Amino acid sequence: MPRIQVNAEVQSASGFPLWGEGTYGLRITEVTQTTASTGKAQLRLRLEPVAEVVDESGKPLGTPGTLLDFVTVDPIQGKSGGTFSFLRALWEAAGLAWGSEIDTDELVGKEVQAKVAIEKDQKGNDRNRIKRYVKAA
Hints:
- The chain is built from 1 helix and 5 strands; from the N terminus they run E-E-E-H-E-E.
- By secondary structure, it is mostly beta strands.
- The termini are far apart.
């Protein structure tokens, strides 16, 4: 096995940089159909920024990375339309027509506006989360 020399003083990476809260323009680069731990069908979206991203203090992030979002697609009955209302917001933010049947491959390459927040994950660490998708003004 090849050996390489490294800097022993380098600090361990703390994970992906945290984006500041706000509305960002994002491009959908990947859509995968998966199953949530609850057994419900979901979409896994990989999104990359289309413009500059800032950190919590407002400073630009040089390499912001990508965001992942999971959208449940199992219908939940109720006045609001359950998770389908979130999926519809994503669909319409991408400029696609909502109908009784949709093709998730149509999302790849589309640009959307998304409100990004900072929340605690299950381990108590800060992480970014897409709160909602909005139609471009």
